[in-house]
Target: Phosphoribosylformylglycinamidine cyclo-ligase
Amino acid sequence: MPAESSEGAPHQGTGASYAEAGVDIEAGDRAVDLMKEWVRKAQRPESVGSLGGFAGLFDASVLKRYERPLLASATDGVGTKVAIAQKMDIHDTIGHDLVAMVVDDLVVCGAEPLFMTDYICVGKVVPERVSQIVKGIAEGCVLAGCALVGGETAEHPGLLAPDEYDVAGAGTGVVEADRLLGADRIRTGDAVIAMASSGLHSNGYSLVRHVLFDRAGWALDRNVPEFGRTLGEELLEPTKIYSLDCLALNRTTEVHAFSHITGGGLASNLARVIPDGLHARVDRTTWAPGPVFDVVGTAGDVARAELEKTLNMGVGMIAVVPPQSVEAALSTLTDRGVDAWVAGEIDERGEGAEAVTLTGDYAR
Model:
């Protein structure tokens, strides 16, 4: 019903409006129109309906092929990496990072990612910029083999500056109950296979920004010989999406567990899948971290322990496999273009020992 004045007549005021408060509904509608092209490319046969509904739809009859399907759910963001995208005015890669952070958590338990939704919060809706963010999300979903079934773009003037935004996403996957991966499958003698990261991925950027910008005073357009490109280009390198590689590995050979190496570094994330009584010994001499890790450490005089508990140090995913599966696992990953190697093994844990120990010095 229309608002009424104190005299009872419909209120005909010409004062405050939503647009005056900073929310542009027309710009939001334009953003939706621009992103439709990208969302259409990130579909699966089970996707139902079209962009613009109140809820994303996915045909759950796909679950009929499972004996006992377990749904897996994960949600994440990309942290302060968005600040780099905003400063560089490049917005079509950050969505790729978002998808990676979600789907690679799902696949750790053996789940196939089915679909994702996103949430984009902006200070001011710039349709072309929002469309570029969604483009990255859609392209990431294609690489992950999942559908983008919907999302939300919210304009928060006053809370965020006009050029500021943040992104988050949630994903759902499915795994057969008797194929669920995790700590209970790991045994003494299992091999720890490391998969190379594409760089910093989407963790530790508060430390990286503090070191390189606040302490070293570097600019994003600085050419860094160690990178063979600018600092900004290196920092925006998208997070590697491992989901289809991990699913392929799980189909072709026996896998006991995966560990997605994100915030907290290799040791703390691998420890999450190591059962009581067992211990993972990881040998640093089996790989050389990419130059970005050495640059951050040197520029900020950051201790190795601090780097290792903050950054992935060149390893983005771990697979724990029985010894008889090592050759097949490495062959599968190599065939898929994934740089992988045996980085350690599982043995008995001594009393009072940590779940994960890193030994040796990194290769050069």
